[in-house]
């Protein structure tokens, strides 16, 4: 009986060790530095499981749905990704990421005055239709950071993009921090990130058009391209309402996923968002 008790105690201790190893927490820093990288994405390879680090680069990923043979990837726009096996993970791990130099593409600009271009819904949408980022009933959720809403654009001419424009219906935040992400599109859903720039901005306007200058990012799109633009919430302190005007459309033009790396959902309609720039 004593031997059985000892064996049980050993197994219980071993089980606790395994559980401790499955606490996937850490901090993300720039290589050879103590400078934190905010809002890095920590995801499980080949699974829709992930989380976004906070403003200080810290994160704590739940072990739910993660198996011993899985790999964890840490990514952030502008940095080379880091790969870890679950078996080698250490609690409160410090992760150091090397910069990923941006190869700037060249755009041919005509000697004539460049023609302005606007792509998306520019007329403000329907005043009675709103798209929520999240609503009051969701405030009990522990982790709202990383939610994305977006729309799909068809690029009809080669162009350089210098602005993102969002028609806010209601913003009850003092200021809400967001990230704009450009994806390729496959089967009507976002697939791969196609702009390796971390476009982070804050919205303090309570309603009306919000204009974000992205001219410094040197972004070009090409005729025939289909792209998705999504807005990811990076707010981790305030919990209030934020709505964007929408428009009724017969095609699937609205995109949403409720957490970092979750499954995409699409629905009919359009979000009152457009991008602007010049025809190349």
From TrEMBL:
Native organism: bioreactor metagenome
SUPFAM superfamilies: Carboxypeptidase regulatory domain-like
InterPro entries (alphabetical): CarboxyPept-like_regulatory (IPR008969)
The protein, known as: TonB-dependent receptor SusC
Pfam family, any one: CarbopepD_reg_2
């Amino acid at each position: 009986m004593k031997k059985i008790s000892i064996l049980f105690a050993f197994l219980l201790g071993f089980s606790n060790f395994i559980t401790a190893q499955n606490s996937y927490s850490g901090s993300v820093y720039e290589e050879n530095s103590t400078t934190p990288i905010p809002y890095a994405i920590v995801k499980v390879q080949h699974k829709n499981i992930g989380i976004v680090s906070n403003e200080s680069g810290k994160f704590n990923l739940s072990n739910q749905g993660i198996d011993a043979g899985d790999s964890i990837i840490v990514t952030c726009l502008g940095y080379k990704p880091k790969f870890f096996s679950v078996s080698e993970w250490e609690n409160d791990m410090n992760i150091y990421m090397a910069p990923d130099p941006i190869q700037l593409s060249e755009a041919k600009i005509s000697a004539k005055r460049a023609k302005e271009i606007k792509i998306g819904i520019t007329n403000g949408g329907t005043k009675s239709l709103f798209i929520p980022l999240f609503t009051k009933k969701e405030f009990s959720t522990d982790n709202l950071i990383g939610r994305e809403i977006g729309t799909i654009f068809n690029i009809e001419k080669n162009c350089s993009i210098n602005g993102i424009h969002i028609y806010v219906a209601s913003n009850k935040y003092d200021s809400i921090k967001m990230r704009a992400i450009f994806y390729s599109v496959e089967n009507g859903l976002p697939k791969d990130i196609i702009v390796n720039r971390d476009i982070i901005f804050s919205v303090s306007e309570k309603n009306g058009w919000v204009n974000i200058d992205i001219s410094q990012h040197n972004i070009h799109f090409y005729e025939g391209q289909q792209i998705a633009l999504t807005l990811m919430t990076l707010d981790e302190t305030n919990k209030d309402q934020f709505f964007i005007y929408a428009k009724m459309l017969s095609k699937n033009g609205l995109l949403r996923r409720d957490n970092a790396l979750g499954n995409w959902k699409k629905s009919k309609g359009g979000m009152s968002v457009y991008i602007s720039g010049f025809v190349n």
